[in-house]
């Protein structure tokens, strides 16, 4: 829409689906200046002419012209000339910058051409209303009488027709305004009678928002129960309700959210990279679990930027709690990792115009099937992301099932991570205890597979009597159970160290895999055997590959398919205790074979450091914007 009053002219661009709102909106907003006219670009076809006649009583004048679905020009050039003349005379012009040829919600060149010819700014506008969607090419909304609506606009944009990014910039801004308008409409208070008479405006996102709000009074009792089970820290449980337990630093804050241990390991190198890029910034790292929080506190002490890192627990996805969290911390950018998709948090970030980035975006086949049951919810969340960085091509294909997104480079930031850190004093101590003994490490094991590993270790010791088997359970609290399965094996969490005759050592501590990868000769990656309770999926094979280990896994590796494909034949797949024992014996009996496989694994992951810097530059560009 072009406004021409007091020398200021702007273009306001609509999406095609809100055109039926035009007469209602502009009847309310009819200009007081009788010389100021509103013109709307409407197609020449029959339904376009009908709309033109409907809006005429509200002094909304039509300009006829468009292209049809086959690309045949139907007065488009004449329409541009007339719109240009209207702008010169200080009138308003409303246009919808896509057309029947599609693709839907992609700005076509006519809008940019008009802005360039008139040297006027574009003001993107979004609208949303309660109603039902027609089965037309543009999925047009038909508003219900006495329904609810919202109307929002962005800051003016001066698009450069020669700039290849101009179309993308305007398209992105329009989409953002549409989402914001829908958010404003959905989050208004809905009375019972209103919901009864207009059930079509109750969207899945509104239901999620309402359910979280209704259940919020019961959630403190859930937190108290979790606290009694050791799953919450008593002194910090209020952080889950959005209350801060430390002061916000002055300056700019980047919010990184990593749900659990695996996500923390992935995101901390990116946190350090961003803080090194701009030492004046601070990083707010949120997690959902106590073990992840302990890992953050432990790892940040090894980073040069540790003074600029703050940890808090992420609030539950309750609107009031999320608002409290965001109002206090006021981050400049929100960075979510892997599959952390929370409808209310994403909506609150969007309402505050807080850029959201999804890094290492992961969507498994199981997640795809789950989200497909609520496609509108996931679509709205993903469309609100400024950038989506998929972990793999398969993840990108799964994300694409829910709409057109703004993708960054595909890649796993775990591939660009440095080797896991280690306590040098502890490393010397353990090396002294294991000196001269071959070490077989079962890393990140889960319930159901330790029995298989212990059987394989017993079979391997028949050929290699000096073999030491180290088992590191994924969840340290299971250490006593694993030790009992191993006949009362010594546990590292109790301060026990192996002697020269110890067959099995259970290392039930947090964040010491960097230590055990350095003292082991061959590594089995857990959560990958068919006996795992929870269906498995594997764990990160890149961490042991960086530290010169021969690698084996079970067949269930769907969570890290791309990483295992990259490592190729350097990783052996085992299916039973017998095949695992044969692999251990083969690599430990021939040092050359063991070293060749370790070198092949290490070489397979070389050359991915550029991804980390790309992510850093994208994040910091938004921080500095």
Mind explaining what this structure looks like?
- The protein is built from 24 helices and 23 strands.
- Mean pLDDT is about 80; it is low at about 1-35 and about 190-200.
- With about 625 residues, it is an alpha/beta fold.
- Strands 1, 2, 3, 4, 7, 8 and 11 form a seven-stranded mixed beta sheet that branches. The chain has a six-stranded parallel beta sheet with strand order 14-13-12-15-16-17, sandwiched between helices. The protein has a six-stranded parallel beta sheet with strand order 20-19-18-21-22-23, with helices on both faces.
- The protein is about 40% helix and about 15% strand.
- The longest helix is centred in the first third of the chain and has 22 residues, at about 165-185.
Q: Which residue ranges are poorly predicted, with pLDDT under 50 across at least 5 consecutive positions? A: 1-35, 189-202
Shape: elongated
Total number of helices: 24
Give me the Rg, rounded: 30 Å
Mean pLDDT: 80
Helical content class? 40-55%
Which class of secondary structure composition applies to the elements?
Answer: alpha/beta
Number of strands: 23
Strand content: 15-25%
First-last Cα distance: 27 Å
Largest sheet: 7 strands, mixed
Keywords:
625 residues, alpha/beta, six-stranded parallel beta sheet, single chain, 17% strand
Question: How is this structure best summarized?
Answer:
This protein is 41% helix and 17% strand.
